[in-house]
Amino acid sequence: MLWLRPRDLVRISRMIPFLLGANVATVISGVLVTRLGAYRAIIWAASALMVLGWGFMTTLDDHSNT
Protein backbone atom coordinates (compact mmCIF):
# COMPACT_ATOMS: atom_id res chain seq x y z
CA MET A 1 0.00 0.00 0.00
CA LEU A 2 1.24 3.46 -0.86
CA TRP A 3 1.58 5.83 2.07
CA LEU A 4 2.20 9.52 1.54
CA ARG A 5 4.05 11.34 4.25
CA PRO A 6 3.58 15.08 4.80
CA ARG A 7 6.99 15.83 3.27
CA ASP A 8 5.98 13.89 0.17
CA LEU A 9 2.93 16.12 -0.21
CA VAL A 10 5.16 19.18 0.09
CA ARG A 11 7.41 17.83 -2.66
CA ILE A 12 4.42 17.11 -4.87
CA SER A 13 3.02 20.60 -4.30
CA ARG A 14 6.36 22.09 -5.37
CA MET A 15 6.01 20.35 -8.73
CA ILE A 16 2.69 22.05 -9.52
CA PRO A 17 4.26 25.21 -11.06
CA PHE A 18 6.40 23.05 -13.32
CA LEU A 19 3.44 20.97 -14.42
CA LEU A 20 1.29 24.02 -15.11
CA GLY A 21 4.11 25.67 -17.07
CA ALA A 22 4.65 22.53 -19.12
CA ASN A 23 0.93 22.35 -19.93
CA VAL A 24 0.81 25.99 -21.01
CA ALA A 25 3.92 25.56 -23.17
CA THR A 26 2.39 22.48 -24.79
CA VAL A 27 -0.79 24.32 -25.69
CA ILE A 28 1.11 27.32 -27.05
CA SER A 29 3.41 25.16 -29.15
CA GLY A 30 0.44 23.21 -30.47
CA VAL A 31 -1.27 26.41 -31.54
CA LEU A 32 1.94 27.68 -33.19
CA VAL A 33 2.46 24.45 -35.11
CA THR A 34 -1.15 24.51 -36.27
CA ARG A 35 -0.98 28.11 -37.45
CA LEU A 36 2.59 28.26 -38.78
CA GLY A 37 3.23 24.66 -39.75
CA ALA A 38 6.88 25.08 -38.65
CA TYR A 39 7.36 22.32 -36.14
CA ARG A 40 11.16 21.97 -36.42
CA ALA A 41 11.85 25.48 -35.11
CA ILE A 42 9.64 24.79 -32.10
CA ILE A 43 11.43 21.51 -31.40
CA TRP A 44 14.84 23.22 -31.52
CA ALA A 45 13.70 26.11 -29.33
CA ALA A 46 12.11 23.76 -26.80
CA SER A 47 15.26 21.62 -26.69
CA ALA A 48 17.41 24.68 -26.05
CA LEU A 49 15.10 25.86 -23.27
CA MET A 50 15.12 22.41 -21.67
CA VAL A 51 18.92 22.29 -21.65
CA LEU A 52 19.01 25.76 -20.10
CA GLY A 53 16.43 24.78 -17.48
CA TRP A 54 18.23 21.56 -16.59
CA GLY A 55 21.45 23.52 -16.25
CA PHE A 56 19.79 25.86 -13.78
CA MET A 57 18.24 22.96 -11.90
CA THR A 58 21.65 21.35 -11.36
CA THR A 59 22.65 24.39 -9.29
CA LEU A 60 19.81 23.76 -6.81
CA ASP A 61 20.34 21.91 -3.56
CA ASP A 62 18.69 21.63 -0.14
CA HIS A 63 20.03 25.02 0.92
CA SER A 64 18.93 27.01 -2.14
CA ASN A 65 16.57 29.94 -1.66
CA THR A 66 13.08 29.57 -3.06
What is the tally of beta strands? 0
What share of residues is helical? Answer: over 70%
Largest sheet: none
Distance separating the two termini = 32 Å
Element order: H for helix, E for strand = HH
Structural class by secondary-structure content = mainly alpha
Q: Quick one: overall form?
A: elongated
What is the beta-strand fraction? under 5%
The helix count comes to 2
Could you report the average pLDDT, rounded to the nearest whole number?
87
Q: Which spans have pLDDT < 50 for at least 5 consecutive residues?
A: none
> What is Rg?
16 Å
How does the SSE layout of this entry go?
Elements: H1 6-36, H2 39-57
Explain what this protein looks like in three dimensions.
The mean pLDDT is 87. The chain has 2 helices and no strands. The chain is mainly α. Helices cover 76% and strands 0% of the residues. The chain has a domain at 26-52.
Task: Write a brief caption for the model.
The protein has a domain at 26-52.
Overview features:
single chain; elongated
